Amino acid sequence: MAEQQQYENNKKELLDSYFTIRKLQERVNRLEEENQNLQIERDDIKNYFGIKKEKYEDMIDLQRTEIEQLKNEKQRAEYENEKSKRELIELKEEVQEQLEDQKKEFERERSDLLDRIQILQQKLDNLETFVRQKAELEADRRNLREQLEIEKRLKQDELAIKEEEKIKATDKLKKICFIKFKRLKHHYWPQKKNNFKQPRDQLFYKIIN
């Protein structure tokens, strides 16, 4: 009974190990798929960042060109009235404000992208840690299987030895009982059939002889 209980416990442990490993494998597959999606998203972000950078650089170059043109116009229009000067100053301030706004927007987007990249990098680091832990779990699983197989063989050998000992003990007990029975028959029961008066006694005599 104890051996059957031990067998059931070993069987349950094997099943628990199998389902645990299966869940871990499914989790690894999901993380690997998520990692691929994150890499694609990171590439898209890099491309978007590059396009935005080129766009803002072109705009800045354009604005700088416009400023230089306005400066040249200012030099050529110094003889114009104060109204033209004020309009030129206002235009310059407006352009500068646009540049500042664009610069702030650029820095904000750049900061957001850097934060996103940092988050992605952290996820990649976590994934690498998980992959390493997975490898360790795989090694533990192999060791567990080997240990269970060794324990199984040892248990089978132990059961075989016990069964052999049981058979030997049974045979020995039969021999002892047979010898004792013979002694009992010769010492306590008559040896001649005629001593058994009743039919039942005669039948018992036939059985023991």
UniProtKB/TrEMBL annotation:
Keyword field contains Coiled coil: yes
Domain of life of the native organism: Eukaryota
Coiled-coil region: 21-165
Keyword Coiled coil: yes
Keyword terms: Coiled coil
Name recorded for this polypeptide: Uncharacterized protein
Organism name: Ichthyophthirius multifiliis
